[in-house]
Amino acid sequence: MLKDALPKVNMALPGPNAKAVLDRRAKAIPGAIKCVYPIVINRGEGAMIEDVDGNIFLDWVGGVGVLNIGYSRPELIEALNEQSQKYFHAMMNIVTHEGYIELAEKMNEIVPVKDKERKTMFANSGAEAIENAVKIARSYTGRPNIIVFSGAFHGRTLLASAMTAKKVYSYGTGPFPDGIYRGEFPYMYRKPEGISEETAIDYYIERLEKVFDEASPAELVAAVVFEPVQGEGGFIPAPIEWVKAVRKICDEKGILMVADEIQTGFGRSGKMFVSNYWEEAGCAPDIIVSAKSIAGGIPISAITAGAKIFDGIKSGIIGGTFGGNALACATALKVIEIIEKENLCDRSLDISKKCRDEFDKWKEEYEEVGDVRGIGCMMGIEFVTDKKTKTPNTQLVTDIVAHAAQHGLIVENAGAHSNVIRFLCPLVVTDDQLDNGLKILKEAIEACRNKN
């Protein structure tokens, strides 16, 4: 079966069938929607995909964090089919469908926001969920401004683009919404030279407090929004001591703390959400936004907050035609069931340890491996020209990604300089597949560093 197969590429990529499809793509689809991989999927199972030429690849990207439970789960297909026999769609503003309520009840049970009495609403994408979280925070607090951070990625809608740090995603598409101000995220690998990690936490908190002095008074800030592990920004985890300090500031100043768990959620961190770790440390967020792996590939996103927050907003500002679609709710419930039943949070930690041990060896072995970081199965390897200068090595990562694909492993870059390789492998990967992937990636590093 494909889900148990190992990577095997029989030809230079793209193969003839893939080339024909990619030629059609170039004519039919905007070139601005880029794809750097010469691969056209035919089918997928588990952590593996087969292309239209019969080549088999191990997927360490998983739809950028969408496929935590893997491709083509029979249980998911069955849940989708069962719901499709009843109805595809019922808009919650018109008639009530029970799947929406059942999924909201489950999310209220498992999503660790600060308040124990919780409510959840659904949208269609991560960017939509972020936009709704901002609207909710502004309506509830009566304040206009939002603080985000360097390295942030929150989506490509107009508001989300304004919140996103990397402006290549929004160049030339302004003017942008007002009221978005940016602090400095605690990028510990690139903290100011000569200071300890403890001192660095104080430094980054001071940088946040400076936003109140120079950009927006705290009394006008509705929410502080950040990713527990920055995704597009380079897989940079928020240090727990910094999160505690942000939580304290928010409590003192009446600001809502919003965790963007779009990419970090649903088992990837070793817990259902990174915010579970925060909850244990006494610094749970007020609002959690989730998407990506929530429904195994069916579009849906969620905003979960304390009931008093939802009950304190203006009527009519939230909702939408397809939010909480019946098919998506059915599959999301099944995804959560699979994660819990198969202990995929524990599996995430097993995978993480195996990979982290290997990545750390590479850090010792290769001058170009500057940093290895992350939480659970959301890990990044940052490549530099040398460890002393830490100059981003973008070309090396570009070459590694291309080399790995030609040998059966799909990996993706990240970071402001695209010099980080991200690890988002489905949590159902087998040990043999994982070993093969590590072998291919190491060979790619060696081949490409020797070329440069």
UniProtKB/TrEMBL annotation:
**What keywords tag this UniProt record?**
Aminotransferase, Pyridoxal phosphate, Transferase
Q: What is its EC number?
A: 2.6.1.19, 2.6.1.22
Q: Which InterPro entries match?
A: Aminotrans_3, Aminotrans_3_PPA_site, Class-III_PLP-dep_AT, PyrdxlP-dep_Trfase, PyrdxlP-dep_Trfase_major, PyrdxlP-dep_Trfase_small
Q: In which pathway does it act?
A: Amino-acid degradation; 4-aminobutanoate degradation
Cofactor(s) of this protein: pyridoxal 5'-phosphate
The molecular function GO annotations come to: (S)-3-amino-2-methylpropionate transaminase activity; 4-aminobutyrate:2-oxoglutarate transaminase activity; identical protein binding; pyridoxal phosphate binding
**Catalytic reaction(s) noted:** 4-aminobutanoate + 2-oxoglutarate = succinate semialdehyde + L-glutamate; (S)-3-amino-2-methylpropanoate + 2-oxoglutarate = 2-methyl-3-oxopropanoate + L-glutamate
The EC class name is transferase
| One Pfam entry name | Aminotran_3
Question: Which PANTHER family does the record match to this protein?
Answer: AMINOTRANSFERASE CLASS III (PTHR11986), LEUCINE_METHIONINE RACEMASE (PTHR11986:SF58)
Record family assignment: Belongs to the class-III pyridoxal-phosphate-dependent aminotransferase family.
Protein name as annotated:
(S)-3-amino-2-methylpropionate transaminase
- Tell me the organism: Oxobacter pfennigii
